[in-house]
Q: What sequence folds into this?
């Protein structure tokens, strides 16, 4: 009945607002440690949306600990062997091995976001049962209850409003989070620094190692290219994810209507017309896609806390960041696991949320700001400053040791420094459950 309001009798212990990658990773983690939960997701049907995302070794480790296998991830992407930055002159600025090739105990994966999301969704339905995800349930806010629990205010597609009670509420409702807006009502609007991205996929021959993540161009105009499927054995072609990016004057703000809008290739392909190398034809790559999605590179200013009593934020709701470090989805998965570890330590209590907040909010807010400063792509701005992108031998511009140290600093801050990660104990030990 439109406009009616009722209070739900069900009292699941943890409410998860948002059934994206972070929300489903949270549900799987809570199930693993014996904490009942329900996911409240606004859309009426979860579909395989989006293009490529990266899963860094720290996140792949957590996925393996959740029972996913390399075969599962090979079905939705492929393991990345190299990360490379190439100048507009076609010459290498920096390259390094990635994942297991680089000595990590876990690979790095590039996956199709939608297919990976569906892999998580199926696992949630298989393990938690069909009622674990309530679709068409938009969480518009929350009310702290006198006994210390919380009610999520849930709007149904038919206009009904329901209060769903739980011991805790985890807001995993993405960059436009309603929960975050209530935790921090004075937060500034979304931040945009002037870069516009057009994302798409094209079936084409993978370059370099066949499993390379390549950033090509300059600080203000570049392409990011990586395969997100296994190569077809006959044609050798794979699904190549590409992001074409141009920086413009941001002083007038974002003028287009949408934040993730489908556009025709012709609206931006001209920026890359003459980007042809003997190893890669960028123009042909872009031209080979049917559609592209335009989205401004946006994030949110860090906030001092991700917690309000029995409510905590997770994933993009907590730390929406530029994709320059390829770690937004990875961090959402790691957040879910750290939350699980804190629940194991402190029980299903607000104290656990405080411990989670203390462990992650400060360091990950720094990663948000580092990514705003171009993340690992910051090397391109150093090269631009020193030689305008023109060089014969990159060692004359920025010695190898300086390039490697720059990357090492980024990896440490983002939590996937190899030796630290390899030596760290599991976030959640096998078989442990909340008593
Ligand atoms: C449709 C879609 C496509 C994307 N495509 C890409 C991509 O191609 N490349 C990329 O790098 N990143 C993409 N992202 C973002 C990426 O998935 C996230 O940055 C990352 O995975 C962190 O996950 P998250 O769960 O925090 O957020 P998200 O994956 O954004 O998930 C948030 C979820 O919350 C739901 N939700 C929103 N508001 C409410 C509410 N009020 N109540 C209940 N549920 C709510 C949303 O429907 C969504 O399912 C996409 C996100 C979405 C939603």
A:
């Amino acid at each position: 009945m439109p406009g009616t309001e009722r209070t739900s009798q069900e009292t699941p212990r943890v409410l998860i607002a948002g059934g994206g990658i972070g929300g489903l990773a949270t549900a799987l983690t809570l199930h693993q440690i014996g904490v009942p939960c329900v996911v409240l997701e606004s859309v009426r049907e979860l579909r395989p949306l989006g293009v490529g995302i990266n899963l860094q070794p720290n996140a792949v480790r957590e996925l393996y600990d959740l029972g996913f296998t390399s075969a599962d991830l090979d079905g939705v992407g492929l393991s990345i062997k190299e990360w490379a930055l190439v100048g507009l002159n076609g010459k290498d600025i920096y390259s390094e091995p990635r994942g297991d090739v680089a000595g990590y105990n876990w690979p790095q994966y590039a996956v199709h976001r939608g297919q990976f999301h569906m892999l998580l969704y199926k696992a949630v339905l298989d393990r938690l049962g069909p009622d674990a995800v309530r679709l068409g349930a938009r969480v518009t806010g929350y009310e702290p209850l006198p006994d210390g629990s919380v009610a999520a205010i849930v709007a149904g597609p038919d206009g009904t409003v329901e209060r769903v009670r739980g011991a805790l509420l985890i807001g995993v409702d993405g960059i436009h989070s309603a929960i975050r807006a209530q935790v921090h009502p004075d937060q500034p609007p979304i931040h945009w620094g002037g870069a516009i991205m057009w994302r798409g996929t094209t079936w084409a021959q993978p370059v370099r190692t066949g499993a390379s993540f390549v950033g090509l161009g300059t600080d203000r105009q570049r392409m990011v290219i990586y395969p997100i499927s296994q190569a077809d054995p006959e044609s050798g072609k794979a699904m190549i994810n590409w992001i074409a990016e141009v920086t413009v004057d941001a002083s007038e703000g974002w003028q287009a209507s949408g934040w993730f809008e489908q556009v025709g290739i012709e609206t931006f392909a001209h920026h890359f017309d003459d980007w042809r190398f003997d190893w890669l034809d960028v123009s042909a790559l872009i031209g080979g896609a049917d559609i592209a999605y335009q989205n401004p590179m946006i994030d949110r200013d860090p906030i001092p806390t991700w917690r309000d009593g029995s409510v905590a934020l997770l994933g993009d709701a907590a730390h929406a960041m530029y994709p320059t470090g390829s770690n937004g989805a990875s961090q959402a998965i790691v957040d879910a696991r750290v939350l699980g570890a804190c629940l194991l330590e402190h029980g299903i209590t607000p104290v656990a949320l405080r411990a989670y907040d203390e462990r992650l909010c400060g360091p990950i807010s720094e990663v948000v700001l580092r990514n705003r400063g171009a993340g690992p792509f910051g090397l391109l701005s150093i090269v631009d400053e020193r030689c305008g992108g023109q060089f014969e031998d990159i060692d004359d511009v920025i010695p190898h040791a300086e390039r490697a140290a720059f990357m090492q600093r980024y990896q440490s801050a983002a939590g996937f420094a190899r030796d630290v990660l390899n030596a760290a104990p599991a976030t959640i030990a096998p078989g442990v459950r909340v008593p």
